[in-house]
Amino acid sequence: QVQFVESGGGLVQPGGSLRLSCVASGFAFSTYAMTWYRQAPGKERELVAAISSRADSTSYADSVKGRFTISRDNAKNTVYLQMNSVKPEDTAVYYCNAARVPKFYWGQGTQVTVSS
User: Fold this and answer.
1) Could you tell me how far CA 20 lies from the centroid of its own chain?
2) Which is it for strands 10-12 and 110-114: parallel, antiparallel or unpaired?
3) Among candidates 49, 39, 42, which has minimal Cα distance to 69?
4) Could you tell me the sign of the dihedral formed by the alpha carbons of 32, 34, 40, 43, in that order?
5) Is there a contact between 82 and 12 (Cβ–Cβ < 8 Å)?
6) Assuming Cys at both sites, which of 13, 20, 24, 34 could form a disulfide with 81, CB separation 3.0 to 4.6 Å?
7) Mean of per-residue pLDDT scores for the chain
8) How far is residue 94's CA from residue 7's CA, in Å, rounded to a whole number?
9) CA dihedral angle for residue 77, residue 8, residue 67, residue 89, rounded to 10 degrees
10) In this structure, which long-range contacts are made by residues 67-70, counting pairs with CB atoms below 8 Å and at least 24 apart in sequence?
């Protein structure tokens, strides 16, 4: 069955860095686009960053552009989100998502808290 193991979340001070990882199994990872979403308390889930199946295209929300980097290693079935210069407003649960229409799979989420 489809499984995700997300890791790397935690408490970080403003201006610090974190790297999130999402290890996938149970589907053809290398054929799926991968996306990181986040959801803050009381807010809707929003797209943070996306990467194509072959990593030849990426896109970012304006709020994270220049600070976050999405990457993937298809040999390891893993997608990453490098988060630099984090801000308190980056506090949220971060989810990885795999998409190859019409199929969509979600990870369980990892909490990121930015606070001094």
Assistant:
1) 7
2) parallel
3) 49
4) negative
5) no
6) 20
7) 97
8) 10
9) 130
10) 70/34, 70/36
